[in-house]
Amino acid sequence: MDLPAALRERGLRVTEPRLAVFDVVGAHPHADADTVLTEVRRTLPTVSVQAVYDVLRALTDAGLLRRIEPAGHPARYERRVGDNHHHVACRGCGALDDVDCAVGHAPCLVPSSTSGFTIESAEVTYWGLCPDCRSAGTS
């Protein structure tokens, strides 16, 4: 992806923090904001906490990042946008991974009633234990 062009197409300026945050989220899918901040500071040591949060919000609002909010965990960010994939989350360590959508019609994603809402997306999170937590006997 030509990120500078994508930013400009969405009316956003091309800045070092935006480029750095986008790169970090690509290298660390499902990273939380604190992880993004730590990694961005490796190349931009003076970037502020607020700047990283602002960039995450701007890139998410622009459709360049996706914000995932697993229950009981901080929000996470990923660059995989524009498809209908889901996530599997570990109850032990909080690890998160992508799960492709089931092939064919997925009735759980089509509500029986919208109650007047315009539906924009549906999220499915599968919860369990990752292999490491299962091996360690985490429950």
Describe the structure.
The longest helix has 13 residues, at 49-61. Strand 4 (86-90) and strand 5 form a beta hairpin. It is built from 5 helices and 6 strands, in the order H-H-E-H-H-E-E-E-E-E-H. The protein starts with a helix and ends with a helix. It has 2 domains: 3-68, Arc Repressor Mutant, subunit A (Orthogonal Bundle), CATH 1.10.10; 83-136, Ferric-uptake regulator, C-terminal dimerisarion domain (Dna Ligase, domain 1, 2-Layer Sandwich), CATH 3.30.1490.190. The protein has 139 residues and is an alpha+beta fold. It is globular.
Topology:
Layout: H1 3-9, H2 16-27, E1 31-32, H3 33-40, H4 49-61, E2 66-68, E3 76-78, E4 86-90, E5 96-99, E6 125-128, H5 131-136
Parallel strand pairs: 4-6
Antiparallel strand pairs: 1-3, 2-3, 4-5
Helix pairs in contact: 2-3, 2-4, 3-4
Family: Belongs to the Fur family.
GO biological process, one term: regulation of secondary metabolite biosynthetic process
Cofactor: Zn(2+)
Structural class: alpha+beta
Q: CATH topology of the largest domain, which one?
A: Arc Repressor Mutant, subunit A
What percentage of amino acids are in beta strands? 15-25%
The stretches of 5 or more residues where confidence is low (pLDDT under 50) are: none
Mean pLDDT: 89
Binding site for Zn(2+): 90, 93, 130, 133
GO molecular function, one term: zinc ion binding
Protein name: Ferric uptake regulation protein FurA
Pfam families: FUR
